[in-house]
Design a protein that fits this description.
The complex is a heterodimer of chains A (about 325) and B (about 290).
Chain A: E1 5-16, E2 19-31, E3 37-41, H1 48-55, E4 63-68, E5 71-72, H2 77-81, E6 84-87, H3 99-109, H4 114-127, H5 143-155, E7 161-165, H6 173-188, E8 193-198, H7 201-207, E9 210-215, E10 218-224, H8 225-230, E11 234-241, H9 247-250, E12 257-262, E13 265-270, H10 276-285, E14 289-297, H11 300-307, H12 317-321
Parallel strand pairs in A: 3-8, 3-9, 6-7, 7-8
Antiparallel strand pairs in A: 1-2, 1-4, 4-5, 9-10, 11-13, 11-14, 12-13
Helix pairs in contact in A: 3-4, 3-5, 4-5
Chain B: H1 18-22, H2 24-33, H3 37-45, H4 48-60, H5 71-76, H6 81-102, H7 104-112, H8 116-120, H9 126-142, H10 146-160, H11 162-197, H12 200-225, H13 235-247, H14 257-278
The chains are: A alpha/beta (about 325), B mainly alpha (about 290).
């Protein structure tokens, strides 16, 4: 079903008790069968998990509709769920089962015949790096291993869409890198569509092709990260000592925009063509002592800051237009 | 090729049917249950009484072995409704303890480990999940209740002949229906207590307490208020009344059959309601 959006929301409203969490969201995300990753970003309480739970059919929309791969999530939730794999945010497993038995059972529940389920369970556990520990009971696993086991059960049946809720939660840097590599492989090598829900911009930026930013239950930004990457903006994390009250007003002078984080910490977005030397010069003119300066190419940080209302406009955009 | 040398590839083979998927949970659950020594021991112990009953059936059909016995005694040992009701009391009792032992280990671990979102993110509804768990318990308890009961019935038919079957076929049907009703109540109580409490051992205690405490409360109501409807709240008592009707033996006069049937129906509905409220993939705090 190429051309069908992976996720389609039409005026979606969701209430939990008397509180409305999602306020009439409308969007089309991804294209089925293209093997792309969609990032779902937002601060805590923005409605990311509520949206995922609604897509899975766990929560009932109070108005509007949501569909996955062209299938209505509410009225045909069984069909929708047979085509997706879900990795929840929190610990979710069956403690007194071995990883192989657990993943095999989940594969059989998704419709794999017992022999195929056993073979796939072994394969996928090796794939996520739990091959040597696959006969251990899940309750003996470390947090990182449990995350990998959750990923294994989500992809064992080869779903068209994999929904990952905070996949790098609680992982050490090495495990985080491995998780992100696996996600990239899922879309690039297996052609799976992936929906990654996270509050970590770096994770989304690293693996996603499209991003949606939620704030207070509404979409505040939707962007194609491929296009944004071409805009070549960069991002600076700065820490200074001294009176930095004039810095915000001075930044537009070099075409940059910045947000103070308190205690001399700043997040600054540089427009294309402006180097870090401009920041050094500016801090010198402001009589500020630079304690830390991290500079990297960035796409999402600026988009996120703008979506959250911290930045008034995109640095360099006015100059580009002019 | 060894499995670790093969890279992961998406599965694109045939899928199993709905019935095969439904049976996945019972298959895994039965395997895990019979790995528990206590469950196995109790199941084996539950076969002692059916074996004794089988010997009794054999004896009643071989009068030559009873030569020299008192005439009254010969008349006393008959395979009739009373015989099957006693068989049902004993096996029904075993079923209570087996359900309390096995029931909580089916759902409580899933709730404690937050496994429900994993199940329900697959093509499995809450009711299918509950029905699958019910199947596990009913299937397991069937092995010690109506299955040996029907074997005894068949043994009696084989020994006594077709005439006995024509005259007493209602005993077989009544036993089957009566046991299935009891197994439904037991399984619902075990599942509901397991879903409500979450801790396996506490759920087992609640499951047992449900029957013993309600029996005690029913007795107290009758004694303290000097009424005769107290036992309507005791599910064991009301099921016993239904059994007596089905097997054609003396029915306890109080409470009325209509009251018993109504309370049983209300009990089933309340237990189903508890299961419906508790078996959710996400807990919503309003």
């Amino acid at each position: 079903m190429n051309g069908t959006p992976v996720i389609e929301l039409d005026g979606l409203k969701v209430r939990l008790g008397r509180r409305e969490i999602l306020h009439g969201i409308t969007c089309r995300l991804g294209v089925s069968g293209t093997g792309k990753a969609i990032g779902l970003l937002g601060p805590n309480g923005a409605g990311k998990s509520t949206l995922i739970l609604t897509l899975l059919g766990f929560l009932r929309p109070s108005a509007g509709r949501a569909s996955i791969l062209g299938v209505d999530c509410r009225h045909s939730s069984g069909d929708a769920r047979s085509r997706i794999g879900y990795m929840p945010e929190n610990d979710a497993f069956i403690g007194d089962m071995t990883a192989v038995a657990f993943v095999r059972q989940m594969a059989e529940l998704s419709g794999l015949p017992p022999e195929a389920a056993l073979e796939k369970a072994h394969q996928v556990l090796f794939h996520v790096g739990l091959g040597e520990a696959r006969y251990r009971q899940l309750r003996t696993y470390s947090l990182g291993m449990k995350q990998m086991a959750k990923l294994a059960q989500a992809i064992v049946h080869g779903p068209e869409l994999v929904v990952l809720d905070e996949p790098t939660n609680g992982l050490d840097p090495a495990a985080r890198r491995r998780m992100l590599k696996l996600i990239a492989e899922m879309k690039n090598e297996q052609g799976m569509n992936v929906l990654v829900c996270s509050h970590l911009l770096r994770d989304i930026e690293q693996v996603c092709d499209e991003a949606v930013i939620l704030k207070d239950g509404a979409i505040v930004q939707q962007c194609n990260l491929e296009d944004e990457r071409r805009s070549n903006r960069s991002f600076v994390e700065l820490e200074v000592t001294g009176d930095d009250s004039g810095l915000r007003a001075a930044l537009p002078g070099i075409g940059a925009e910045g947000v103070p984080d308190g205690h001399g910490r700043w997040r600054i977005v540089l427009p294309p063509g402006v180097g870090v030397d401009a920041i050094w010069a500016l801090t010198g003119r402001q009589n500020l002592l630079v304690r830390k300066l991290t500079h990297r190419r960035d796409t999402l940080e600026e988009i996120f800051l703008k979506a959250m209302g911290h930045l008034a406009h995109t640095p360099g955009e006015a100059a580009g237009n002019a | 090729m060894a499995v670790y040398k093969r890279g992961y590839r998406r599965y694109d083979g045939p899928l199993t049917g709905r019935w095969a998927r439904f049976m996945v949970l019972p298959r895994y659950a039965w395997r895990r249950l019979y790995q528990q020594r206590l469950v196995l021991l109790l199941t084996m112990a539950a076969f002692v009484w059916p074996l004794l009953c089988a010997a009794f059936v054999y004896l009643t059909n071989h009068t030559e072995l009873l030569q020299g016995m008192d005439k009254d005694f010969k008349e006393f040992i008959q395979v009739d409704g009373r015989f099957f009701s006693i068989f049902m009391y004993v096996q029904g009792g075993f079923a209570v303890f087996l359900a309390a032992l096995a029931g909580p280990s089916l759902i409580a671990p899933d709730l404690a480990n937050n496994a429900l979102p994993l199940y329900f993110s697959r093509p499995l509804t809450r009711w299918t999940y509950a029905l699958a768990r019910l199947t596990v318990l009913v299937g397991m308890l069937s092995v010690v209740t109506w299955v040996p009961g029907l074997v005894l019935f068949g043994l009696q038919v084989g020994l006594a002949g077709g005439g006995w079957l024509r005259a007493h076929w209602t005993l077989g049907a009544g036993m089957l229906i009566g046991f299935l009703l009891w197994l439904l109540i037991l399984s619902l109580v075990a599942i509901a207590s397991s879903a409500y409490v979450k801790w396996r051992f506490v759920a087992a205690a609640v499951s047992l307490a449900f029957f013993f405490i309600l029996a005690g409360v029913a007795e107290m109501i009758d004694e303290v208020l000097r009424v005769n409807w107290g036992h309507a709240i005791d599910p064991a008592w009301t099921v016993n009344q239904v059994w007596c009707v089905l097997l054609g033996v003396d029915v306890p006069p109080y409470p009325s059959l209509a009251a018993s049937a109504t309370t049983l129906a209300v009990t089933v509905l309340l237990l189903a309601l508890v299961i419906e409220r508790k078996l959710r993939p996400v807990e919503i705090v309003s």
